[in-house]
Protein 1
Amino acid sequence: MFRFGVDYYPEHWPEARWETDARLMQEAGFNTVRLAEFAWSRLEPEPGRFDFDWLDRAIEVLHAHGIQVVLGTPTASPPPWVMAMFPDAYRVPESGLPATYGNRREYCPTHTGYRERSRLITQAMADHYADHPAVIGWQTDNEFGDRCHCEQCRAAFHTWLQRKYGSLDALNTAWGTIFWSHVYTDWAQIPAPLATAAPFGNGSHNPGLALDYYRFMSDTYVAFQHEQVDILRSTCPTHFITHNLMGAGYDRLDYFDLAADLDFVSWDNYRRMQWTFRPEVPPSEAALSHAVMRGLKQRNFWVMEQQAGSGGWQIVSVAPRPGELQLWAYQSIAHGADAIIFFRWRTAHFGTEQYWHGLLEHDGRTGRRYTEVKQMGAELARVGSQIAGSDVRAQTAILLDYDTRFAFQIQANNPAFHYTAHLHDIFQAFHRRNVTVDVVSPESDFAAYKLLIVPAQYVQSEATAAAIERFVKRGGIVLVTPRTGVKDETNTVVNMPLPGHLATVCGIEVEEYDSLPEGVSQPLAFDEGTAMVGRAPQARIWCDVLRVTQARVIARYTSDYYAGTPAVTANQYGAGHAIYAATFGDSELYDTLADWLLDLAGMEGGPETPEGVEWCVRWNGQERIIFVLNHTTEPKQVPLDGGYVDLLTHRVLASATLELRPHQVVMLAAERMPTGATGTSNGGAGRIAQPAQ
Ligand code: GAL
């Protein structure tokens, strides 16, 4: 069943209104509602006194309207009594200044008292709802994250380190603490990496210590979640367990680890949040987030919070234009969402999020946004069963590494370098070509792919390098970008030429490198005889100066003291090729490389669509469900290469051109399948669909 619904806070509204809300939800086609993730003070008004009556009544009203329920464990926002009970449970951010009461996520995830309260409320909820016919699953907490640097965390870090290193000698060697005489002679001397260690902001902690602390913090949240998961699994074995994560950009937790305990991941997909530094999230960034979320467990995911209106805490974002809510939600589905749950039902009158707009207005009116979503509900009633159970398939993968992300937080290398932005720069080139890209962890099996992208894998284990080498040897194509293989797992620089363990596969060695000032770039020149002659991408941010040992030179720098030296190389290795791009380039570089790499890997791009129009494919066995999404405010025309059926109307498209209104989404199926078609592709139309007779 395709899940469609909303996040609802019955505790915010008079009980007399619940029936109207549930009826309107049912009329919108909703079958699922998330409840209770911020309701701790109503569920446990005082220590050990639980009150589920109100929630039972709310669930009953919803269930009577055919709606099932996901319950959130409410631990992201403790009631005042919890924090009064544990004044030392306030989270201490890197600044060293402890949180105080009044927002949310102010708790320290190590605190044993807080952890106990978390287990107690989770167990009480699980006991109460294990056999409830309307309850289908659980969301743990809400958007885990935020490091704590308190004394309890520091003590727990010591235990974590003892388990990892066994002895202080081993730790001192691993971190290189001889530098600045940081040799630890007692575990208790080891600090948490607070900003106060460098009061003038001009320094950072030992990189080995800091990376271990970030890993420890990530492990701590995973352990915090695990306690809830344990309870929920044993008490409610028929329910699923998920968590709402925060997309590709969130980098304080190892999401692969957090996801390992879950049945599937969910995430919160906001496209317009004027109060943050990112007022507008472009479609390709949302697509990357979807790919990351899909990649965490190599399976479909839920969107637990899909934007329902203007965002806003203090400042109100630009309103979603007509069609945008649907467009954004359908994009989620196109990239692998098996559920769309809008955040939130009705706009709150009170609290921090008074201006975070729900589907209904403050006064409970159903306006434009509700009507739009209701229309989508009607559409999903027609096509939802086809979408449910379908999946997204790719032959290209991009490697995402959280150790690397943590290490770049400690040493950015260049102020203009941002790991997620770099991933996105490359991803975007494939996205523009409508090529589906999977996101994989360093531990993944790469064998399923033809093309693997290894963007700046700064901290690289020998095992990962060996897996990449095997992948190439057996015929895979790999693209490696600068700052790969610089560090081993202790976050110390490797004692060999870069890119470290990949130097042989890549057939080059980095002799030296140049970190460029902001705004400085230089054109690259492709060598005669390469398919890319005439294209002129720019090198930016970083230039490795290479010595070729085996590889063929594809492109060269054109200025500075390394003018004429290689900037892009290709090395045949075994049955495959390793491409090394020695600089972080502009979009032209990744566009150029994408065309070439697809060609090398023997893959076609997806079908060509006008700028701003996305073409995505979900597979149902051998059949495709194609989503064509117009992200622009202009009408667009998409040439079709064959006969297609509009899935909503079941009408065969009469013309070879698909006309799209601004923000329109069309779902298509190929009119018929030729014999011998296979289910693996980039999502391209041409290889599988045949022209209509
Ligand atoms: C999410 C969060 C929600 C709500 C929303 C809008 O990050 O999970 O509880 O706060 O943002 O701000």
Protein 2
Amino acid sequence: MLDRRHVLAGLSSLPFAARPLATFAQAAPKRLAMPPLLDATQSGRFSLDAQRGQTDFIGAGGGETWGFNQAYLGPTLRLATGQATGAQVHNGLPEDISVHWHGLLIPGEIDGGPHQAIAPGATWSPEIPLTQPAATAWYHSHVHGATGRQVQMGLAGVLQIADGQDDARGLPSGYGVDDLTLVIQDRRFDRGGRIDYSTTTVDRMSGFLGDTLVLNGQVGAEAVVPPGLVRLRLLNGSNARIYPLSFADGRDMHLIATDSGYLDRPVALGSLTIAPGERCEILVDFSSGKDARLISAGNPGQMMGRGGGNDFSVLPFRVDATQKPRITQIPTDLGGSRPDGDASTATTRQFTLDIPMGMGMMSRRAGTQLSINGDAFDMNRINFALQRGTQERWRISAGMMMHPFHIHGVSFQILSQNGRTPTAQDTGWKDTVLVNGSAELLVRFDQPATPSSPFMYHCHILEHEDGGMMGQFAVT
Ligand code: C2O
Ligand code: CU
Ligand code: CU
């Protein structure tokens, strides 16, 4: 286990992000900014404009980045559940993009996956009917073969499914005040401070890891919080890095929501791992007035000698004692639920995530394809079809490295991981699961998806997804 000294020593050596974080840590850190909030709960409509801009992340000049309505990333969309919202997505970029609503339970034809590409100059206008429970979801481009690069450039944002009940739940809800949105990403920059996504074979096989941490598009910022309870909505928007998170002083993280919404009651955790595509919401108690630091251990999921690494700083928190805290009590009843389905009659479907190893890996022959059950993704092949309303047990085998497995159009229960009951952080409703060995899921398919607009299932390491570790299914 790490003691405090070890953690701080690890932080000061900072092999990860040594250059920029060291530079920034010396100057007075800037206050972390939230993505702008685009609240569509009243209007029932919103527009996103995919555009290019310039971003200087590390003070070295910077370069071209992509975003929605801004230079990098997109606004936090807040949509009301129980109503339909009209979206207008305009593509002002010179290549096809798409906007996939990751975590939304909606039909395949408006899911925004690879079959709903938006051509340059075109506008896509889906009506999004939401009926699911409140949750923190997200949106990102999903063009097959280009997702890793497009998300790396900034085509992603957070999406809140809101039911207006957070005050009744006793939860912090002041956007950017005591309800913080944290998009966690890692990047590499070239000497001019431009995003460098020139991937090597190892990056494509093992997943792209950056050397600099970027939070909400900012490097080296600090969060300023009131001396009370603060809610953190965490999104791992990285291409491949897995973050085992904790606070340097060991304080609890009270988990209140997983991917698809609230738990029944908060669960106190000392650490929590968030993999690409996953979200979680935690409450953190700052009422002592003491500053704190969110840290991460090195990436655990990598093969080829790239695993591990020292602890590094994710985000320092400074308590502003002049602010009046709004919430100081951890609520006991969140009104959410934990799935507890009956899997006894569900049919089982096996998914094996394959990475070509050995001789084949470095060659340019067919063996370089990533795949699931031996099949690399093919836009023109539906891997299987199922009947709407059915429930299945999905058994995922990950092989030599960890893979975050994601399914479109559903939220599921994690039945087991390596034959054992899931850890506390995996007992909520999920749409993405970090598979370390094997996992069994109970999945119910309630949303329709025609063969021309199927749902995807894939590894959310974007280099794996782009490389073929994805399939598609219809629900009819
Ligand atoms: Cu977050 Cu298929 O995607
Ligand atoms: Cu998705
Ligand atoms: Cu993977």
